Amino acid sequence: MSSQCYTAGRIEDAVRYSEAAQQVAGTGGDEVPFGRAAWAAGGCLASGQPQRWAALCRNELASDRGTPFFTRACLAVALTLAGSPVEAAAAADGLIEEAEATRNPYELSFTLFAVGMAFRDTDPIRALDALRRSLVIAQDSGNRYQESNLAATLCFLEARHGDPLAALDYFTLAIRTYHDSGNATMFRIPLTVLAAFLDRFGYYE
To answer: How far apart are CA 95 and CA 111, in angstroms?
Structure first.
């Protein structure tokens, strides 16, 4: 859990915790609860090293620990951010059906998020459909953390391929929730996309 401190801006600490977690993964008698070992690479992701997250996911899948479909969903996101959309799409194949079988709203919402990420460049309409469905599930289940991440992703895709007015709503939601929660790292993402969005429409100030 300490590797998640990147959300508060402690990126160097998060990378150090991520590296420590990877060194001890699988060496003790206890597994990481709920198959969430792939989350330990959050600091690497925040520091611009998504390929290291992908490597951790592959190691987890090879170890037969945890929850394989959830780790594959993490792998799909990592590969997308590493610039490997074809591999990301392959990792995402069949994930939604597995997540639906769990009847767990977070598992399904995150998996839909992963599918949306995996297809955001190659099939943006499919990506938008998955992300919109994921957002509804997150909101209905009261998962504000997932809601924030989805809003930040949706503002980008809606601005490029969907409804610009809807994009503004997602900008508002993402910026407000990240700011209010003190998530200094993720807060930058919707702000950056908003700057590009306003520039595109000539609102330079």
So the answer is: 7
Can you read off the two tokens belonging to residue 2? Answer: 């300490």
Residues composing the chain: 205
Digitized pLDDT (tens) for each residue of the chain, 205 residues in all: 676 666 666 777 777 776 676 666 555 545 555 556 666 666 676 777 788 888 888 888 887 766 688 889 999 999 999 999 999 999 999 999 999 999 999 999 999 999 999 999 999 999 999 999 999 999 999 998 899 989 999 998 998 898 889 999 999 999 998 888 888 778 888 899 999 999 988 998 8
In sequence order, which residues have a C-beta less than 8 Å from that of residue 187 and are 6 or more positions away? 175, 178, 179
Residue 172 CA to residue 194 CA, distance in Å, equals 10
Task: Report how far residue 133's alpha carbon sits from residue 146's, in angstroms, rounded to the nearest whole number.
Answer: 12
For helices 144-161 and 124-140, angle between their N-to-C axes, nearest 10 degrees: 150
Cβ–Cβ < 8 Å for 61, 91: no
Q: How far apart are CA 77 and CA 159, in angstroms?
A: 20
Q: Is 64 exposed, middle or buried (0-12, 13-18, 19+ CB in 10 A)?
A: exposed
Please tell me what DSSP assigns to residue 4: G
